[in-house]
Write a structure and sequence with these properties.
128 residues, mainly alpha, two-stranded antiparallel ribbon, 6% strand, binds zinc ion
């Protein structure tokens, strides 16, 4: 995202982002999974590749940081299902929903690492 900083810094984008998050304050991907998570990111549904028209007029969806970082970016790159990726969030937890740890959590009905009791069976990928 860094290379499009000049677009994200425009007043026009700041306004678009604000309206998107006001209109759709919850994360769209979490909502699909039945979770209620406040969205903090206005995400382009269609990849804009720095194209100003697409950037400013493309459809947006609201996402939380975790969904934005894990699902969207890799999906944009490949457009297809992918092998799991070892990216982590700021807590050192794998962000990819296909990561074995996350698959395990879903299978066992856990939504958050904090809900897992005792020592977690799958290894945590702590970075800090
Ligand atoms: Zn989310």
């Amino acid at each position: 995202m860094g290379s499009y900083d000049h677009l994200y810094k425009t007043a026009r984008w700041q306004r678009l982002r604000k309206f998107q998050l006001m209109a759709q304050p919850l994360c769209a991907m979490c909502a699909e999974a039945g979770r209620v998570t406040p969205a903090i990111i206005a995400d382009h549904i269609e990849k804009h590749d720095g194209n100003r028209t697409k950037f400013f007029t493309g459809r947006l969806q609201s996402l939380c940081k975790s969904c934005h970082d894990s699902n969207k970016q890799k999906f944009e790159k490949t457009g297809i299902a992918y092998e799991y990726h070892c990216g982590c969030n700021e807590h050192g937890e794998p962000t990819d929903p296909k990561h074995p740890v996350n698959v395990w959590m879903r299978e066992h009905g856990y939504e958050s690492y904090d809900d897992v009791p005792g020592p977690p069976p799958p290894p945590r990928n702590r970075t800090s």
